[in-house]
Amino acid sequence: MGGIVADFSHGASAPTRRATASEVGCNLAALLRTGHFALAFALVAVPARAQSLRAGEHDRQSSYELEHVNPRFLALEFAASAVFATTFVLAAGAPPTECSWCATNAFDEAVRDALRAAHPRTAGSLSHAFSTGAAPALALAALVPTAFMRGRPSHAFEDVVITLDATIVTFGLTNGTKRLVARARPAVRHGVAAEFEYADKPSEWNKSFFSADTSLAFALVSSATTLSYLRGYRSAPWVLFAGSVIGVSTALLRVAADVHYATDVLTGAAIGTAVGFSMPFFLHRRAGTTEARAFTVVPLLGASGTGVMVEGSL
């Protein structure tokens, strides 16, 4: 078991007044600098701590077996993932020719103004290099060589199939939602479609929400990270770090390429991470594990301030 404590106290109380926009921005920056968002990293730090506490119980040169990894189950899981993705996309209908969600908002516009690249097509090409190149390469590098080095080639096959399933499900959710929502892409909304990568593909003009490159990148790296922790690989924290860099880079470049708004990539990151984490975590727990896998959030109240404690294990 491991615990993470995040203190959200902000000192003595002051007379109540309405904060100005600049003060809100300064307060947000101060929170980021002082690390009061440590809770956001709890689900990462806790499993790492739990793994270190169990190091003496497990041979460093071996890896954990997982449940439901026999060929029959994996085949059924793959088939179910493919059927779900295909059905959802087909049920969503044909690619939209007009936008249903045409309006934008101040937040998305502000981020677009800050990140839009001078050459959107170059940013788009770089984003694909991260999402379709670096992300799958990291997943394979994290799972396959380690399994072979530990004399468990079957683990490599099992983990690749599980990661592929998470990617397929994410693909279906993303592309089906794109067709249902029909949000106009930023370049189209602002009348500069000739400058971005889909200039010659009108069928892509109204598929902004949510970002496929971002969701797929996060699905790949989060699945690889979760499986690395479940297997007990010591490289898991490094997979997490590299995967975070790849995922965030993909998201930023999609906005810079003027093909997505900030809310598109934030949603894509959330969906990809949720699927990439959930499928291995809930369908393929460690074999023989008797301890319930759960994360508990406990509110902390005291004279010095308030906060929360998050604890749990993989």
Features:
314 residues, 3-stranded antiparallel beta sheet, 10 helices, 3 strands, globular, disordered N terminus
Topology:
Blueprint: E1 2-7, H1 21-34, H2 42-53, H3 71-91, H4 106-115, H5 120-149, H6 153-181, H7 186-189, H8 212-231, H9 236-256, H10 262-283, E2 295-302, E3 305-312
Antiparallel strand pairs: 1-3, 2-3
Helix pairs in contact: 3-6, 5-6, 5-8, 5-9, 6-8, 6-10, 8-9, 8-10, 9-10
Overall tally of structural domains: 1
For the record, what CATH class applies? Mainly Alpha
Radius of gyration equals 22 Å
CATH architecture: Up-down Bundle
Uncertain segments: 1-19, 24-61
CATH topology group: Vanadium-containing Chloroperoxidase, domain 1
Structural write-up:
This protein has a single domain (64-312), classed as Vanadium-containing Chloroperoxidase, domain 1 (Up-down Bundle), CATH 1.20.144. A hairpin with a 2-residue loop joins strand 2 (295-302) and strand 3 (305-312). It is built from ten helices and three strands, in the order βααααααααααββ. Helix 5 packs parallel to helix 8 (212-231), helix 6 packs antiparallel against helix 8 (212-231) and helix 8 runs parallel beside helix 10. Mean pLDDT is 83; it is low at 1-19 and 24-61. It is globular and about 55 Å long. With 314 residues, it is mainly alpha-helical.
Concise description?
The protein has 314 residues and is mainly alpha-helical. It is 58% helix and 7% strand.
